[in-house]
Amino acid sequence: MLFHGYFRSSASYRCRIAFGLKGLTPEFRGVHLRRAEQRLESYLALNPQGLVPALEVEGHVLTQSLAIIEWLDEVFPEPPLLPKEARARADVRAFAQAIACDIHPLNNLRVLAYLKTPLGHGQEEVDQWYRHWCAEGLAPLEQIAVAHQAAGPYAFGETPSLADICLIPQLANARRFGCDLTAYPRLTDIESVCNALTAFAAAKPAQQPDAEA
Known about the structure:
Glutaredoxin, 2 domains, globular, 8% strand, Glutathione S-transferase Yfyf (Class Pi), Chain A, domain 2, alpha+beta, single chain, 213 residues
């Protein structure tokens, strides 16, 4: 397996956590987003969207972090990242998608860059945009996580799931943009529990071979 990613990409971060939980160490190739390497012809030939991550497996290219993670869970089923019961799986997927499909796209680098050029917004306005949509997304997730708190220390039970895999990179990104997370004590408690695991700690952006100071 050859994994194309970027150290600061939340979507790449999710996949790194999943690899770690599954005990997998794919070969890594960095795609530097701020240098526009995702727009090179060689990369667009792999992923026409020009996004990270992408995973090459036996001549096939997988894209989109949730699709990659669910593929991993099907091909390498232990430990499972989704519950066995159908309704519980739907709950976990809904939590994960609330982050990956609702919060993260509005906070994506290409969206933030477009706000500045060509729309002409200053950095403080862009940061305010980020913080607003992050708060809009995290507030209901805090309520959901509190409702499931009795099930275990993770978002949905005694073991980490796809929900935790999506949550931790989003919280790390929020901190990078100066978001106030004091209104989400349950989410930050989950974060602490997750980051105590090697799979989560090793997946942090600062630990990656392409990380920058």
